[in-house]
Each structure stands twice: as structure tokens, then as C-alpha cells.
């Protein structure tokens, strides 16, 4: 629970930062949802909207950076207030990156839609995005309530995202080997999947920041940050073997 200050204007400044973070979070969630929807439905107009919407997050991050500098200079915050302000800077940076990653997915819609993709691949991508979106929503809810209780579970879910991404990576490689004509579109889908996996990483970063804001401590234990795609090797198909 945030403490009250003698100067009401100080409370309003901190509230402003929290509200701007909440607005950024909602915008980032919509961008992710719409980017994946545009990809699955081959909706070029929606993809262009997502690309344009990234400017909103860029502007919001600059606004938060400017505001935090002013607050630090005027108020010389300490303890919980300082964690709150520094946390706002860190979270806004992560949300701005989520917007960039969603924009990158949307920019690949045109290339992917040149050839028809198997439904199972798009469903896999959608499932990965749903998991990342759930993680992002839960961590933003934790920030709004300054509630660290469920943050460990949110962070642990990042391993599920990594495992699903590795599985999708392997499937896409196999599909490319079956027919070289699939290479271009599947390469773009690989980049889309990686962007979604990175969104999960940024949600995890936010979880760790929220935990620090609420408790003043770091989240134990250290989380694994690697996916396993570097270990994936797909054997050649029988017809290709000598």
C-alpha cells in the first residue's frame, strides 16, 4: 500500500506515474493481441494499425522518463518512493519493448500471407501468444495492486513459454525441410515466435521489478533465461539420405 505524503501534489505525481504505466500496459496488451490476430487472419489493415500504434508507447515512455526526472529533482525521494519511481522507469522501458516486438510481428504479416500456412502452425503461434498475454496481464494486475504474492508463479510460467517456443521452433524447421517453398514464410513465423517469447521475458522482468517495488528485495531464486532452441537438430527426411 502506498503511503500518503504531507504534500498532496507529491502523491498526485506518483499517482500520475502509476496511471501512465497502467495505460501503457493496456496498450501493449492490445498491440500483442491485434498483431497475432492480424497474422492469423492475414489482415493487412489491422497489421498497419498495430505498426502505427507503437508510436503511442514510445511517446508514453518519453513522458514517464521526463516526469520521473522532475519528481526526483523536486522531491529527492527515498526508500519506497524511490523504488516506485525507478520501477516506473524500468517497467515503461519493458512495455515499450513489448510494443516494438508486437510491431515487428505485424510488419511480417504481408510476407507470411503470400503463402497459405498449415492451421496447426498458426494455432501453435496463437497458443504461444495467449500464454504470453496471460503472463503480461497478470503481472500488470500485480503492479496495480502492489501484490507480490503471485509473482513467483508468473515468473515460473516463463519456462512454459520457452518450452512451447522450442516445440514450435522444431515444428517450423521440419515443415521447411519437407518443402523448400515454405522456407520464406516459415522463417518469418520463426521471427514472430521469437518476438512472442521475448514478450514473455519482458513480462518476467516486470514481475521482478514489481516485487522489488513492493518488498524492497529481489525475487529468489534466479530464473533460467534461456530457451532450448540452440539444442534443436532436425534430421534429414529419409528421401534425402544417401
Describe the structure.
The protein is 77% helix and 0% strand. The chain is an all-alpha fold and 242 residues long. The chain has one domain (8-240): Up-down Bundle (Methane Monooxygenase Hydroxylase, Chain G, domain 1). α1 (8-41) packs antiparallel against α2, α1 runs antiparallel to α5 (119-145) and α5 packs antiparallel against α6 (151-178). The longest helix has 34 residues, at 8-41.
Low-confidence stretches: none
Number of helices: 7
Examine the secondary-structure arrangement and name the CATH architecture.
Up-down Bundle
Question: Averaging pLDDT over every residue, what do you get?
Answer: 88
Q: Kindly state the percentage of residues in helix.
A: over 70%
What's the alpha carbon Rg, rounded to whole Å? Answer: 20 Å
The major β-sheet equals: none
Please identify which CATH superfamily we are dealing with: Phosphate transport system protein phou homolog 2, domain 2
The top level CATH class name: Mainly Alpha
CATH fold-level name: Methane Monooxygenase Hydroxylase, Chain G, domain 1
**Which sequence of SSEs, written as H and E, runs from N to C?**
HHHHHHH
Count of the domains: 1
Structural class: mainly alpha
Basic shape: elongated
Strand percentage: under 5%
Give me the count of strands. Answer: 0
Amino- and carboxy-terminal Cα gap? 68 Å
Amino acid at each position: 500500500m502506498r503511503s500518503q505524503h504531507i504534500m498532496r501534489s507529491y502523491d498526485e505525481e506518483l499517482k500520475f506515474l502509476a496511471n501512465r504505466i497502467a495505460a501503457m500496459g493496456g496498450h501493449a496488451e492490445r498491440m500483442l493481441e491485434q498483431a497475432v490476430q492480424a497474422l492469423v487472419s492475414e489482415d493487412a489493415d489491422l497489421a498497419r494499425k498495430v505498426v502505427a500504434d507503437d508510436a503511442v508507447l514510445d511517446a508514453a515512455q518519453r513522458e514517464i522518463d521526463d516526469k520521473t526526472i522532475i519528481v526526483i529533482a523536486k522531491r529527492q525521494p527515498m526508500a519506497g518512493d524511490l523504488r516506485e519511481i525507478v520501477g516506473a522507469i524500468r517497467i515503461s522501458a519493458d512495455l515499450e519493448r513489448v510494443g516494438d516486438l508486437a510491431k515487428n510481428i505485424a510488419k511480417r504479416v504481408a510476407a507470411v500471407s503470400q503463402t497459405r500456412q498449415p492451421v496447426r502452425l498458426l494455432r501453435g503461434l496463437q497458443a504461444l501468444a495467449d500464454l504470453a498475454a496471460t503472463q503480461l496481464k497478470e503481472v500488470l494486475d500485480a503492479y496495480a495492486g502492489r501484490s507480490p504474492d503471485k509473482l513467483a508463479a508468473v515468473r515460473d510460467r516463463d519456462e512454459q513459454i520457452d518450452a512451447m517456443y522450442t516445440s514450435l521452433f522444431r515444428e517450423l524447421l521440419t515443415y521447411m525441410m519437407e518443402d523448400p517453398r515454405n522456407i520464406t514464410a516459415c522463417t518469418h513465423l520463426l521471427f514472430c515466435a521469437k518476438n512472442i517469447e521475448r514478450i514473455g521475458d519482458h513480462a518476467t522482468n516486470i514481475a521482478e521489478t514489481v516485487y522489488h517495488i513492493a518488498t524492497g528485495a529481489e525475487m529468489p531464486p534466479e530464473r533460467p533465461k534461456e530457451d532450448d532452441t540452440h539444442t534443436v537438430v532436425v534430421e534429414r527426411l529419409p528421401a534425402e539420405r544417401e
